[in-house]
Fold these 4 entries.
Entry 1:
Amino acid sequence: MDKSQKIIEIKDLQTSFYTLEGELKAVSGLSCHVYKGESVGLVGESGCGKSACAMSILRLIPNPPGRIVGGEILFQEHDLLKLSEREMRQIRGNRIAMIFQEPSSSLNPVLTVKQQIFETLKLHRGLDDGQCLEETVRLLRLVGIPDPQLRVNDYPFQFSGGMRQRIMIAMALSCRPELLIADEPTTSLDVTVQAQLMELIDGLRKTFGTSVILITHNLGLVARYVDRVSVMYAGRMAEIAPTDELFENPAHPYTQGLLASVPRLDAGRQKSLRGIKGQPPNLTRLPDGCSFHPRCEYARDICEKEYPPLEKIGEEHYRACFLEPGELKKPR
Amino acid sequence: MEEKKTPLQARAPKKRNHLADIFTRLVKEKPLGAAGGAILLILLLVGIFADVLAPHGYNDVEFAARLKPPSAEHLLGTDNLGRDLLSRVIYGARISMLVGLGASLLSTVISVIIGSVSGYFGGAVDFLIQRFVDSVMCLPSLIILMTVIAITGPGLLPVILVLGVEGGVGGRVRVVRSAVIAIKRNLYVEAAQAIGVSAFETIRRHILPNIMAPVIVMFTMSMGSAIIAEATLSFLGLGVPPPMPSWGGMLSLSGRAYMLNAPWMSLWPGLCLCVAVYCINMFGDALRDLLDPRLRGDLGSYAVNKQKAG
Amino acid sequence: MTEDHLIDIENMYMYFPVTSGIFQKKTTGVRAVDGVTFHIERGETLGLVGESGCGKSTTGRCILRLYPGIKGKVSFEGVDLATLSRDKMRRARRDMQIIFQDPIASLDPRMTVGEIIGEPLRAHRAAFGSEYADQIAELLSMVELEPSMADRYPHEFSGGQRQRVGIARALALRPKFIVCDEPVSALDVSIQAQIVDMFEKLREELGLTYLFIAHDLSVVRNISDRVAVMYLGKIVEITKSDELYINPLHPYTEALLSAVPIPDPKIDRKRQRILLQGDVPSPINPPRGCRFNPRCQRSAAVCREVEPELRQTSRDSGHWVACHDA
């Protein structure tokens, strides 16, 4: 990891979806950055805007109903939001690659694996057919597909879910991207396959120095595989901290609640998991003030009126909360 | 996905969907469907009160006034026998609406019963029913219709029955069956079985309400095709026997022969047919949407929640 | 069989036929459940874990006899369910219920929540009139929902609330036994914790027995008294919950446990990681000998030839494992 160089920096990003019920603020003022070669976890519950954030980076928000309303996304000094669609296409899949949750629907079922990987290789790297085949076989071997020479001619349905996700990873890596966004890459897969794939992504990151944004709701994966964690709630950052620091000193009530909710393999039967009360908010009708206050056990008057700014409380440790860090009880 | 939550205070406790409720929502949310329904209702009333509304009898032959274009006396003109077209179109509404409604109702009921049994139980029952449907489908329907009418003799009732039964055991069974199979795979059907709900109750309470959308569309479409099939039969002399007018009969019998000399002869019944079928479709679409609680009110949030990720 | 066994399963098999050709000839079978024997004690929660396709959901559904063609003996309170008449089986269903994984798909979108919860009462003619309405209100408050919500449709609820509706429906007939088929897998962590806590509360209050099926081993550890691990249609290990996590004997259990990260980087870093190779083989044609042998690190010659029996480690230890090496 190279802390002197930020590969991507998001400043005050705002993305909204315009629905019949009104404006749905999927991302409302989000700032974060990723260093070169670093892996960052983006954690939050479903509907908190993590995927909308990833789609905004690649400018893949469906319009209508969605639109990036404001902010900056600096990718190596370029503001991605100011690029033309043509320039953006040069970046997508080439310098920033993405892996999606559903390996079965991300691959075209009527094309062979070879045809799909060739597409990217030809588009971005301008290789001829012979080089393409060589490169495809090399990539498939890299991601651990047995007999790649034979299997390049197979169709997606001939692979298992885990194998399909490996193919997706191979496609994502085909142009040696500088940034890899993995959006819940293992959510639909079994734990043993999840472990295989996460080891693979982590190994590739270490080998090629690719920066990784891992979007997940699984705190265990975050603990094991990322350097720094960003916790998102209702379209904003609640807390950003290096992994060890976050798990040791969670400084936002939401982070604490999240950590207390997770059932742990190393803890025996408990009377209560102490989950967070209530339901995640409706993004079209966000409460005034801090969006977490209706569920927060420490909420006070000010929390209902103003949104707390993201403030620095330690080395690389930021959080958005009015409470003094000492006022929070230690979980467990 | 953890979906948005409707806050309690946002809605007053609401009553179940009574007929009046559906009616007000039809007018408010689906104006086009409401208009279609209204026109349909008017056509129906016109058919019922034809005796009062028609200025002339449907078979008042007036040779002096043959093939007259629309005029003050005959608002829509006259046909080749000098009969008042307005009156014949009004009487025609009766026949066409009767045939359309009757035959499509019958065919829908039959196909829903056969199709849901076939789809729900599957296995040998399904196999037998589907082979039967195949055999019906491979005969041209006109041949079946002609054969049966030739035996029973022409008339309003035979036409309705024959069109209804023929339509009900044909391809529409397939539509219902595939809809039933799609619904049957849903977990809530399995949930009902796990509770111990009987097969009949499961079909009635879980399957049928959920296949209403295709069934309503099927009903409206078969209404149009029944009206047109009746026209064909009339053309062959196997429909409602003359001089009783039906739109289809007017269009195809004499209307075609005098198309160039007296275009109004085919224009009016043709126009009526088009309007009726269009209205039926609009009304059917509106009804289908209204009966689906998922589309109730917050269509937008439903649509967006589905595509918005994360 | 002893008194405190609510459910006894002996050599249960469930093969789903794979048919081909116009005469639907049965060519082969998916061996979803391939000879399992276990029991569930009264008042306990038995966790059933394994990867997708291992037959855990099928096992749960077989106990409720939701499929035709189940082989083997399933007894509920000492009565072999296969011997029951249609009518008696319908009555027996009142005692056994199921909660599904997908809280969206398992609720009929055309019915109000009140109708959904009331359906078991109607089907078994268990309550009428004002009593019916009272029961629905009571069931809703049992799962911590407002009784006034009975008139709303499932799509108006969030995922967690829908799962509560599913639970209320399962509780309507006051069953003794509930199969929970991945009931929290589709939910967010904060909601998951609420639902898991509710399962515990209901079990204590109503004296329920659960078969808790899940692929998430951490959730299972949190809620189960005993845990059974399934692989390719067979139970490979079954023992007390804490014992399984502290002292796993089957290499598959070990691998499964090590694949689950612990949400605490300091502890997680110290753990040994076993990475399984390859995928789960097809249940149509499982490997010869021990089913796990192609992926097993401790595989020996005997494993490729002889299928290991599920045996108890020592007398009355209650720790059963099917491995030649354990």
Entry 2:
Amino acid sequence: MGLLTNLRSSISRAVSSLFSEEEPKRIGIYGPPNAGKTTLANRIARDWTEHGDAVGPESHVPHETRRARRKENVEIERDGKTVTIDVVDTPGVTTKVDYTEFLEHDLEKEDAVRRSREATEGVAEAMHWLREDVDGVVYVLDSTSDPFTQVNTMLIGIIESQDLPVLILANKIDLEDSSVQRIQNAFPQHETIPLSALEGDNMDEVYDKIAEYFG
Amino acid sequence: MADLKKPDGVQIDLISAARMDGLASMEKIRLILDGVRDGNIVILEDGLTPDEESRLIEVTMTEISPDEFNGIEIETYPRSETADASFLDRLMGRQSTNKLTVIGPANQIETLHKDETIIQTLVSRK
């Protein structure tokens, strides 16, 4: 599996690089809700864009991001070279949305229902982007949670079936319960990079790998 | 049939690979979601392809409605390296699905435990 996957990724990257002069690759930030995708997107935007505008609001309430948002022409400099990508922050993917869970976060029923409706639209949008419109994936997981879920297994399977290059990020390593090893064990066929998008820990390695995988 | 009073219980639809083979992707998804929305547990002898799984998530999202349908719970055995498609299959882009898949309404099915050899779920009545 590993050899073939690497071979196919290399071919796909080599083919893609032929067109790299034309337009930046669109890199989708995917993962389950509350993994820290928007926090990562915002950090990348702050670190590498002129005005450093945030991609979207961050929150501990699930499904804060309910629309895919694209930050264009993010220029990441590594080893004297510049890699230009479009960062697409996507809503967290799930197979179920229950508005009553938002009530636990002190939302009124009307707001919770609206949030759940927008969340479902956002997940559908994220899936559409994944099938049609991204050239590579940064898959963000909360390293304090069990990565061995059906949504993660399905999404990684979908990404692999499309031969998209994928970098797995084990986020929230600043928290006590974090276990990067658990993520490595769940997806041994892919490289896992630890980070804290919130604190900015290990971002140099993250940018090195983004440049390597998507440059 | 419509006049018969349904006994109190949970209906399980075991759908054979042969039945699914003859269906287009959207027909498969419709078959699954129609069953699940009726409160049934759908078990597929042969699973869906990754592309069909992606569309299943997308269509499920469009059908979620507050106080009526919260979405689905889906479980399959993890794809193991040894049970994966052969080298030639993968080279030719063929994907081996071949994994038992359990799908049910999110508010009626709860996964208790899952590993490479067993899926334990708790199913409750509507």
Entry 3:
Amino acid sequence: MGELVWAACVSHAGGQLRVRHGEQQDRMDRVYAAWDALRATLQEAEPDALVMIGTDHFQTFSYDLMPVFTIGRGAELQTWGEFGSGIKRLRGMPELADALHVDLVHSGFDVAGSADMRLDHAYSCPLALLTPDDSLPVVPLSVVAFVPPLPPLARCRALGISLRTAIERQESAGRVAIVGTGGISHWVGVPETGRINPEFDRHFLELFERSDVAALDSLDDATLIREAGPGAGELRSWLVVLGAAGSIGARRLAYEPVDAWITGTSLVEVAVT
Amino acid sequence: MSLLDLQRAIYHLSTAGEQARRPTDPAAALTRLIELSRSEVLADLPAFQLRLELEPHEAELVEHGDVAGMYRYGVHPNLVRNFAGAFRIDYLARYREAGL
């Protein structure tokens, strides 16, 4: 039987790797300090594997095939190496991935499985900061965040609840950690690129910290895109983690609007029931 | 008109490795991609087949690195961003120049 021992949500802005010094150094430093703190609690939790909820930015998936949910089942997971993270072959955990995949499908979530899922900065950037020694095997779970039809946030939180059950039912990894990556506000590839909306970000974080699931579930894409940019679609991964952790609260380690990273950057540790 | 094929081309050009993108100008890279898509060898390997049927004006968007034109045409912004990154194009500056 498995146990969920640690949960967190983090921004995956690649600028955190590429631009470590700049005009808003104080903000950057607070974010890096939060990464240090999160890394420490992850190590203390002594997980056997890390399930990462992220998205793909048209690196691995394209219009030729874009499943709503995809789990990476490979023993090795190659990264794309963006933002200077370097192309790596990370350790996967096929036995855990397979068990989760089967359980999720039987629970009513039509998750696709990929034997060779490459990982973009949604995974590689947080991993570079969270487990720089690549010591933990990773099971990635991709959630579509940019290309409609997008799964509703409530559906993502429900996926998280089923994921938690799947984690507890499997016997391949005794201690499992989970992290959701993305957000918060950012506009990329559009004329508004560079815009950040701290007002929305702080409001979202308040809802998330007190786990106001009714309010979070009701966030619609029109509001998200208008207030936080197309990049806010990535907050779906946060809802998956919240559902998995039990929706009992979270603790903000950092929130900083960093212009050089073009992202309202946040790290949150999520309480686990 | 095939926005899908244009986005397919942009996707492959953006995710190809450094060697596949040399020379680094978009026009040459697109030429190589189209040649590859018509390869008789790949025709025997359905899993690797790449179907590209670009209209002339669509090909021009890629050949000229016209990221503002791509955006206006309806190419997904993430694809535009990736293409710009692959070919070292400052897409935001180009957007500004185009009045976006």
Entry 4:
Amino acid sequence: MDTAFSNEDLKFQSDVREFISNNYPKELKDSIGTKRKTGKELSRDDLMSWHKILGKHNGWSAPGWPKQYGGAEFSPTQKYIFEQECARAECQYIMPFGVNMVGPVIYTFGNDEQKAKHLPGILSGDVFWCQGYSEPGSGSDLASLKTSAVKEGDHYIVNGQKTWTTLAQHADWIFCLVRTNPDAEKPQQGISFLLIDMKTPGITVRPIKLMDGSHEVNETWFDNVKVPVENLIGQENMGWTYAKFLLAHERSGIAGVARSKKALERIKQIASAEMSYGEPLIQDPAFKSKIANAELELNSLEYTELRTLAKDSAGKGPGPESSLLKIKGTDIQQMVTELAMEAVGYYANPHLGTTLSNEYVGPDYATNLSGSYFNFRKASIYGGSNEIQRNIIAKMVLGL
Amino acid sequence: MNFDYTEEQTLLENMVTSFVRDDYDWDTRCSIVKTEEGWKEENWKKFAELGLLGVPFEEDHGGLGGEATDIMIVMEQFGKGLVVEPYMPSIILAGGLISKLGSADQKNSIIPEIISGNKRYVFAYAEPQSRFDLFDVKCSANLDGDNYIINGFKSVVFGAGMATHLIISARTEGDQRSKSGITLFLVDIKSDGITLQNYPTIDEYRASEVVIENLSVSKENILGELGNSYEAIEEQVDLSTIAICSEAVGILQVLKDSTNDYCKNRKQFGQPISANQAIQHRLVDMMIEYEQAKSILYMAITADLSNPNERRKAASAAKARIGKAIKFVGENAIQLHGGMGVVDEYMISHFFKRATMIGILFGNVDFHMKRYIDLTQSDIQSINEDDGINLS
């Protein structure tokens, strides 16, 4: 057993740290920092400019992709280090839709033309992708989806509605699960995987406001949308296979250990500034105990993730264990957002950055902490609800 | 980075696994705990033959020079068999103190005897008022000529009834709760002045109350420096804490796997109870708790245990977290076994009882949470000095 980093790993760590410190734009840090303090939404530039910088550096925008497709092909340990360093420096996240979701599907199941057409834009960050999976009637039971694609000559005609399309307001392309065979014996058997240009006539995106007031997700409507047949991934009616492959990829890295660690550090700082019973809140035994509890959960999860990574290194691939990482990772994210809200006392109340509030009140660090708490209730619901993850473990790991 | 065992460690694991499987099946274990002695000396001889008694000792004294991982391997498998022979008290804790503090002469004469199985030392430290505070020592040792005269009372000394010798912590100076002034004495358990009251524990191990009255011990039998043993005691108890955490992880695996099997086989309403989602999700949560417990054990094992603060944090983090897992997995194992969970006859309750008692040993969840919090106060300081996050 050896959890120490090798000399090569340490060298890699210092390379990453140095690259971030030399290349993460100050303007971006300031822009995101200001928006966070004032409760404003991030722009497409805020979301993508770090991705674009990484895309020009040895494929670092795609840590897990093979080199032949322009990715960094990091080892699991390197991925872990990279994630840690990005979190440490509070870098903007890389949007997962292109790099972690559709990218691996395209290079695994797509044809050469599709690879040549789409992979470079994902890698560089010039093309913004979104995910067309869920529908109003198809949440956890994804295979019941109804959006239809009917072949007419060299096009599919797509009709239906997708929902929870995260950041579709910025998206250039959407990858969709559509029903190509409504008469298939099992619902899973009639599904295909289509890539659709968001500029195609007939697509309408309508915002869905979340309970924290943020515009993160949308409804996406398809009204006789013509999609060229060459945008079909793999074989018709085999989409479910690709969809499941994508979901397993989506769950890896979902634990968010490094980000939660950073968030806990921030809470400790806030709790050192906040007062309770005439002393810094961080001295309050009840609060300290909650922090320590979150820290222990996080320590355990970090080692669970490392154990999974070590298995990955041995070529065993991410299995249903990723469901465990999703459950515990999101538990902890929710625990941490709650602690942050709790730390600021009354200043959890103001809802800043709306059209009704031009004045900013309270300490900067308190802005939107309650918003994050409310927003992060989503974490145990998205990506397969935590109940569905338990079903997966029950079936795939425990054999129940 | 890897969590693999070396070839030697795999051999060690196989050896202990086969011992538990072949020589310690459930019926055998049940018959051992019902005997007057509460253990089987033959097993100790077998441990000696297999080299298990030498695992943590230096090679110079005939040991294997094992590290935390090797100890974990042995303890985890012993946990799966609920092995009652006093391996942790004698080999890990008392043995660790002798290795750490013994003079060259003491080590040369004692350690080979321990490894061969001829002598068993156990450490008598707890007192009725001390709870988990290792520095709370009333038991006194006063110099009288060349000897110390010891008087006091030691509580719940595990394995004392199987021991040939005791290591006794006694106060040679200072207040009852002072960390300085604690001295360790090596004594033959048959010495005049030692009275044992032996009893079985709820989990069918054996412990003793030890009454010490005018026990005369020569200066030569002081272990370590006069009045300066606290740090070593704390260190060895931390390492023993990690060892029992390993035992707990072995037990949790049995609790979780057995419950899984039971739920698949137990039929009600014409189907296995594991067909119910309420049961399935509980089993999944038990599995998650088990994995999290194993993970924090790995964190502790791979921490820099030679650094005192890292060691303290590792031991308390592991014990606190695993303590929670014990409660969750243990109580749910009983619940899902239904009536079979609450009877003495079926093995599951015995695993639950042992795990629960491990939860108390060397400090329960609250004790270690508090210790962990106190130890991480300094981390908060350093975060505040870090200019990485701007709070303005």
